[in-house]
Amino acid sequence: MLEGGGDARPVLPAAHAGQVVRTGPWPRGAGGAKQTRLEVGDPTELSVHIGPISNERRPAEVSGIVDATVAVFDTEDEAWVALPGSLDAMGLPSIMSMADLATPMAVRVAATLNLAEHAGNGATADQLAADTGTAAPILRRLLDHLVTVGVFSLDDDRYRPTPLGAQLTDFKPLLDINRAGGRADLAFVDLLHTITTGASAYTHRYGREFWADLDAQPALRRSFDAQMAWRFTDHANQIAANFPWDRFTSVIDAGGGDGNLLCAILSAHPGVRGTVVDLAPTTAPALARFAAAGVSDRGSAVSGSFFDPLPAGADAYVLSDILHDWDDDHVRAILSRCRDAAGVAGAIVVIEPLLGHAGTAIDLFMLMCFGGRERTVDQLAALAAECGLTLRGTIPVSEGRTALEFSV
User: Fold this and answer.
1) Other CB atoms closer than 10 Å to residue 340's CB: what's the count?
2) d(CA 8, CA 114)
3) Are 197 and 366 within 8 A, CB to CB?
4) How confident is the model at residue 30 (pLDDT cuts 50, 70, 90)?
5) Are 182 and 112 in contact (CB under 8 A)?
6) Three-state DSSP state, 125
7) Please, are residues 285 and 225 in contact by the beta-carbon 8 Å criterion?
8) What is the pLDDT of residues 189-212, one digit of tens each?
9) N or C: which end of the chain has fewer CB within 10 A?
10) Helix ranges, 198-351 (H)
11) pLDDT for 244
12) Which residues are catalytic?
């Protein structure tokens, strides 16, 4: 903690980067205003002029770098000055910026309320409040923060999304708090529970496991299937093109959702027939997808679970983005069901993001939400070996995903 006032020039060493600096007590100027100077390293100086109003934001000049904004928390005899703008400009990390929850939640609320779509080429806070069923004075405060962080711009009392803000629409399937992905992300606030107990933060927060939550709320299930289809739009076509599916005449996609991957495979390989096996709510959407793509004569869907016996006798059993959702015991159970169905003649094709290529954030999400994890090839091969399966080969099939082929 650094103190100084008047003509004093406290120095903020690099070790204090990202901290909130206390300065004061300060002599009062005209109108009760205060002035001080802070040095951030040498020769960079940050001059701050603080008025008598509490909890305000004032511009600050950072000599030799850029203009910055400091948050001022003014009390009777002292003030606390946060320096995020100056530290960011210097390329120094700020732990408080990393820990901020206001901006991530503001962005997610904006996506949930469809603010970018409603704003279009510009709308007032009153118009946006009417469109979203919110109160204008409260919504305006959210919008003003989104302006501060560059998601919206404000001209003549009209808010409009910036190019950054336009991404609210692009990424709505992941950001919308009322959809499966956004709802799951909120469980990160209970990450401490996972780290201290090893149990799912999602279950701790919502009272039931993620998959049970989808079963209990059909709208949530539909949003999850739509999210997976959205995320896999590019991956599905790449996987269909980059793996030799035409070696097989029949494919079972276990846990294949609404059939987005199998549909891409059937479309790219006319000699292949396939069936999606997943829970009952996905059957009708999968059949509709096959019909729309013109492959309904070769594509089918049946309700079932990869924890139960699977249809036997197919040439290949596909598990795409499945195993990382589960802990090792459940992975063994899934692989064993596929082994039993495939027999000695069939193949099991596991498609996963691999640890080291998948980011640490998604690995932490898998732990927090499901108790799952990203794995290496060796870790997956070891689990498969415990189920009597041998790794026959691996091949990159899309950006960030690898296919591993196993057989008895």
Assistant:
1) 14
2) 49
3) no
4) very low
5) yes
6) helix
7) yes
8) 999 999 999 999 999 999 999 999
9) N
10) 201-206, 210-216, 218-231, 233-242, 260-268, 283-293, 328-342
11) 98
12) 324
User: Which stretch of 50-54, 144-148, 362-366 has the lowest confidence by average pLDDT?
Assistant: 50-54
Phi, psi of 160 (to 5 degrees): -145, 145
Distance CA 9, CA 334 (A): 65
Find the helix packing angle between 283-293 and 260-268, rounded to 10°: 30
306 three-class SS? coil
pLDDT of residue 93: 58
| CB 59 within 8 Å of CB 50 | no
Question: Does residue 175 contact residue 182 with C-beta atoms inside 8 Å?
Answer: yes
Using DSSP's 3-state secondary structure scheme, residue 374 falls into: coil
Measure Cα distances from 249 to 104, 236, 244 in Å: 47, 19, 11
The one-letter code for the residue type at 249 is: T
Helix (H, G, I), strand (E, B) or coil at 293: helix
Please say whether the beta carbons of 374 and 363 come within 8 A.
Answer: yes
Dump pLDDT digits (tens) for 50-103. 333 333 333 333 332 223 333 333 334 433 344 444 444 445 557 777 889 999
Residues forming a β-bridge with 68: 60
**How far, in Å, CA of 308 to CA of 351, rounded?**
20
392, two tokens? 């026959």
Q: Read off the pTM.
A: 0.77
